[in-house]
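In response to the reviewer comment on reproducibility (Comment 2.3), we provide here a single inverse folding case reported in full, input and output, so that an independent group could reproduce the run without further information from us. The structure tokens appear first.
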């Protein structure tokens, strides 16, 4: 009799059970082989557990009723019997006891449970209580069929995890889920049979980067460029043995290339396989991506395969959409803090399937001051240390306004560290910072302004002007108001309301206008997405009251090269008037900055750590977020995923291109194409607007969209129609 793991689909025949099990087994063994050099504890245990789980993960599919569906003898959208419970039951028997394998099998479709809750089930822990008795009666029969199809012998030893339990379990689940999903995708011809990821080739890419820097040196002169060159080689040649380091360098010091040279040097020295560049969650990452693609791609390589650009998480549990999941298989990955850290926190199999690619990576947490809100830093710092100590990761925490959060007891806890080394010395940093002095002056006007008053106030200052708002809506309505009243040529708009393609076009338009020294009377209205990672320089700057570090970063986009003698960076407040919208998530950090301004404190990067400490001292860490570390230690995976949110709102993927939406429903769409035509919008807003969901939490934007305001064009138009604000 033929046994199946997956049913026929169109012209593709069903996949035999033995073929799937052996395929998953081969893939997990390959993943473990790739990870093994970087696992510093529990290596043997990891290898044994994952192979057991791979071989028995689909045992329940051998049930007769499930086989009837898989073989096409009966029709059903779902398997009639939960196929996961049999594999779990197999490894909870005394003679084959492997609790870790049982847990991984239990979780490979639904994710881990909260262990403190699961323990209340007593002897039925990690079992499907609705069918456990039935499965136990049929188990020996299923095992006999399985053992006739699959050849496997295991050693059953005591399982004791010496490292961090939660990360160890997530890593196991990552390997099993990725192997399961990948083998399935290969069978259905949604993924290539031969998976040959591009190698990092750190020494070759470093040599190419060196040649690029040498060519710049020949073209550019001046003291500042000489210092940038010195910065490059200081980072490149830094003698670092620690697993966690910092790079505290000011605006305009060439950090993007200098730290990459350092990472490539360390990757070659440590035998690392991958580099991550993690940028703030609101950041536009394209400029960094283009820089790395222009410099680091070797002859004959595909630049998109070498430097992967991941704007946001696009993870799908639906089997039909699994091929769209963005995996971490490129040698260099540029991504956002949302996608990166929420993957570390995830309990979702679709998101976790990429996690096993992280061990043996160099991770550049750029603009680390803005990567995470204070409430998430205690757990994030714990993870940074675990991945450094147990999974062979090397971390560089970099910023022009670095807040040393690891020195704050409320964040670091008992593992407080005072001596994280800096890859550039104090003397060089002092000389680099010299150009920051007198570049701008910080001003403030904290009298709340409505839309009309704000627009008129801003446009009276010399341009070009940069204005950063705290919400996507406020940025869009201000840009729209200025366009209507002062002309479209007087304003540009840049925010995550635009799809990545239109953000790129807008950014190029802004750069072109900035190069034109005659074209000065205009304003860029943006969100914090321009605060880091973009090389822009404006005559005057304005930022809605937020955090100190955001103000410092925004100021790095004003008079960047010191061309003007009297540039100003203003902090202002808005008056909610039906269109302008406050961001409640910034209330606490804004209060700290407001106090500093009113006390006439000098605004400098050195205040960054103090501002974070003051915010915690004033407001503390909420009980929910203090408990995050405890939940992680107790393996309460559901609670950790729920509470560890970089953006504290429930957002969904929304497609703005109708043709792509149709092809997604009826055919294959590559994840790279998908992220080019999608935005993230809060679910409550989608519900309020009655935006249609087309499949698996993917929505289709059905209001107006344009390349100026993005999806906010439809919302602004709707608000005007409803009379929510008076737009004269």
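Designed residues, in position order:
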């Amino acid at each position: 009799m033929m046994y199946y793991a997956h049913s026929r689909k169109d012209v593709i025949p069903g996949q035999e059970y033995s073929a799937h099990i052996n395929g998953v087994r081969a893939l997990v063994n390959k993943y473990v082989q790739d990870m093994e050099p970087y696992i510093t504890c529990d290596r043997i245990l990891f290898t044994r557990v994952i192979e057991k789980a791979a071989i028995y993960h689909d045992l329940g599919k051998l049930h007769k009723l499930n086989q009837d569906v898989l073989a096409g003898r009966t029709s059903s959208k779902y398997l009639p019997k939960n196929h996961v419970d049999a594999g779990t039951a197999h490894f909870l028997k005394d003679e084959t006891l492997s609790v870790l394998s049982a847990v991984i099998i239990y979780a490979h479709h639904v994710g881990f449970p909260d262990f403190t809750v699961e323990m209340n089930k007593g002897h039925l822990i990690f079992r499907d209580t609705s069918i456990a008795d039935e499965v136990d009666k049929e188990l020996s029969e299923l095992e006999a069929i399985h053992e006739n199809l699959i050849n496997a012998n295991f050693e059953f030893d005591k399982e004791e995890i010496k490292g961090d339990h939660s990360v160890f379990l997530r890593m196991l689940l990552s390997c099993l889920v990725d192997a399961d999903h990948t083998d399935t995708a290969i069978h259905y011809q949604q993924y290539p049979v031969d998976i040959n990821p591009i190698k990092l080739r750190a020494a070759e890419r470093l040599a190419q980067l060196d040649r690029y820097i040498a060519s710049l040196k020949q073209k550019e002169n001046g003291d500042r460029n000489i210092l940038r060159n010195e910065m490059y080689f200081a980072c490149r040649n830094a003698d670092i043995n620690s697993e966690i380091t910092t790079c505290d360098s000011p605006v305009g010091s060439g950090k993007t290339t200098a730290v990459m040279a350092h990472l490539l040097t360390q990757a070659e020295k440590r035998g690392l396989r991958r580099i991550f560049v993690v940028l703030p969650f609101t950041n536009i990452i394209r400029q960094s991506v283009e820089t790395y693609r222009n410099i680091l791609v070797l002859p004959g390589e595909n630049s998109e395969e070498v430097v992967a650009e991941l704007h946001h998480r696009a993870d799908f549990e639906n089997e039909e959409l699994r091929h769209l999941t963005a995996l971490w298989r490129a040698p260099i990955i540029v991504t956002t803090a949302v996608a990166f850290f929420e993957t570390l926190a995830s309990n979702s199999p679709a998101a976790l399937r990429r996690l096993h690619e992280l061990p043996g990576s160099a991770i550049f947490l750029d603009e680390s001051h803005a990567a995470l809100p204070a409430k998430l830093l205690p757990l994030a710092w714990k993870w940074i240390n675990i991945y450094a100590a147990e999974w062979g990761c090397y971390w560089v925490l970099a910023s022009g306004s670095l807040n040393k959060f690891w020195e704050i007891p409320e964040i670091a806890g008992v593992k407080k560290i005072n001596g994280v080394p800096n890859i550039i010395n104090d003397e060089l940093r002092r000389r680099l910072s010299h150009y920051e002095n007198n570049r701008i002056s910080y001003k403030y006007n904290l009298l709340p302004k409505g839309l009309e008053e704000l627009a008129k106030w801003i446009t009276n200052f010399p341009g070009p002007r940069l204005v950063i708002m705290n919400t996507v809506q406020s940025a869009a309505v201000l840009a729209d108001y200025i366009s209507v009243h002062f002309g479209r040529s007087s304003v540009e708009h840049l925010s995550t309301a635009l799809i990545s393609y239109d953000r790129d076009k807008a950014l190029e338009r802004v750069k072109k206008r900035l190069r034109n020294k005659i074209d000065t009377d205009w304003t860029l209205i943006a969100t914090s997405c321009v605060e880091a990672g973009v090389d822009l320089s404006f005559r005057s700057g304005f930022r809605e009251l937020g955090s100190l570090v955001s103000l410092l970063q925004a100021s790095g986009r004003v008079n960047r090269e010191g061309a003007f003698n009297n540039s100003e960076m203003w902090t202002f407040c808005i008056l909610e008037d039906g269109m302008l919208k406050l961001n409640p998530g910034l209330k606490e950090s804004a209060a700290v900055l407001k106090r500093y301004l009113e006390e006439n404190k000098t605004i400098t990067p050195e205040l960054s750590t103090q501002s974070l400490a003051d915010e915690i001292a004033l407001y503390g860490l909420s009980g929910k977020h203090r408990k995050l570390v405890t939940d992680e230690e107790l393996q309460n995976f559901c609670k950790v995923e729920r509470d560890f949110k970089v953006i504290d709102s429930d957002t969904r993927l929304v497609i703005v291109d109708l043709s792509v939406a149709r092809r997604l429903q009826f055919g294959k769409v590559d994840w790279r194409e998908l992220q080019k035509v999608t935005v993230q919008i809060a679910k409550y807003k989608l519900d309020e607007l009655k935006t249609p969901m087309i499949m698996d939490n993917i929505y289709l934007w059905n209001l107006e969209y344009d390349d100026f305001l993005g999806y906010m064009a439809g919302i602004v138009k709707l608000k005007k129609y409803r009379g929510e604000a008076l737009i004269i």
